[in-house]
Amino acid sequence: MNGKETIGIIDSGVGGLTVVKEVMRQLPREKIVYFGDNARCPYGSRDSKEIRTYTNQMIQFVSQFQLKALVIACNTAAAVVLHEAKERMKLPVIGVIEPGARAAISASRTGRIGVIGTEMTIRTGAYLQAMRRINPELYAVGMACPAFVPLVEQQRLHTEDARRIVAETLKPFRFEELDTLILGCTHYPLLAPLIQEALGDGITLINSAEETARELSAMLSMQGLLNEQQEIEPKQHLFYTSGDKQVFQQIGEEWLECSLNVQQHMLEHANSSL
Fold first, then answer.
1. Predicted TM-score (pTM) of this structure
2. Burial degree of 236 (CB within 10 A; 0-12, 13-18, 19+)
3. pLDDT digits over 47-65, tens only?
4. Do the Cβ atoms of 173 and 199 come closer than 8 Å?
5. What residues contact 8, with CB distance under 8 A and at least 6 apart?
6. Contact 232, 31 (CB under 8 A)
7. Do the annotations mark residue 75 as ligand-binding?
8. For the chain, which end, N or C, has fewer CB atoms within 10 Å of the first or last residue's CB respectively?
9. Per the annotation, does 187 bind a ligand?
């Protein structure tokens, strides 16, 4: 391996762009290839077999780009596939759950932490287990928010409807006396202003994307895989979507604040095994 190889980032849709943004900020010399499976998003309400099949198809696709590391940016996919992907692949594979759990414990003053995520992420208990491995004494509670991902994917972020849905969904958490909340889906940081408004300024929001990029940076550094050449221009990164190219490009360019090289690619007929 050498420092010039590519970092693969996969997600069920546009949510993983929150990870891309942090990787671009923290590792500006690294080239990224991203795949968002918008055509089959959301993953959170699907069964584990479908999630495994779809995630492995994304991994197979990005693996053609001479990867030096893979980030499974989808919390749902990471909860189901991360362990086996780490075992099978001959390169560093990073999820978003462990970094987010560590950051939440570090940020919390009272040890009362909430997690919001998709139905599958919450059902697996992946965040709660990760936190309790570090601190068995903390109070942690999870809540599935299935209405949140469609708000992002359907470009309804800036609507009154979105504000109402977020506030009503999170109302039970206002009585939990939490001081820290993990945004346990990479789509959720795009809703962060509405989430903060719903829960108040006294709660710290944990964006797993920031911690994931930090962990990626440390791992590449330890293994001597950092690119030491000039910074990468945004147009050099490759973005693929299985859904509507124009919608992906509009959301991506708004979030990343730059022009993107976006192509459409369907995955239905790909081999489902790693």
1. 0.89
2. exposed
3. 999 999 999 999 999 999 9
4. yes
5. 32, 33, 34, 35, 59, 62, 63, 65, 67, 69, 70, 71
6. yes
7. yes
8. N
9. yes
Q: Are 210 and 140 in contact (CB under 8 A)?
A: no
Q: Is 44 annotated as a binding residue?
A: yes
N- to C-terminal Cα distance for the chain? 20
CA-to-CA distance for 103 and 181, rounded, in angstroms? 10
Tell me if residue 8 falls in helix, strand or coil.
strand
Is 264 in a helix, a strand, or coil? strand
State the Cα–Cα distance between residues 3 and 224, nearest whole angstrom. Answer: 8
**What is the pLDDT at residue 63?**
95
Q: Which helix (H) or strand (E) holds 245?
A: helix 245-256
Q: Which strand (E) or helix (H) includes residue 77? A: helix 75-88
Q: Is 186 annotated as ligand-binding?
A: yes
Task: Name 108's Cβ contacts closer than 8 Å, sequence gap at least 6.
Answer: 138, 179, 180, 204
Whether 134 and 102 have beta carbons less than 8 Å apart is answered as yes
Q: Is 76 annotated as a binding residue?
A: yes
Q: What is the Cα–Cα distance from 13 to 34, expressed in whole angstroms?
A: 10
Collect all residues with Cβ–Cβ distance below 8 Å to 23 and sequence separation of at least 6.
7, 9, 30, 32, 71, 213, 216
Return d(Cα 127, Cα 114) in angstroms, integer: 10
pLDDT in tens, 168-217: 999 999 999 999 999 999 899 999 999 999 999 999 999 988 889 999 99
In order of start, what are the domains of the chain with their CATH numbers? 6-95+210-264 (3.40.50.1860), 98-208 (3.40.50.1860)
User: Among 257, 218, 259, 262, which Cα is nearest to 239's?
Assistant: 262
Q: Which residues of the chain have pLDDT under 70?
A: 1-3, 269-274
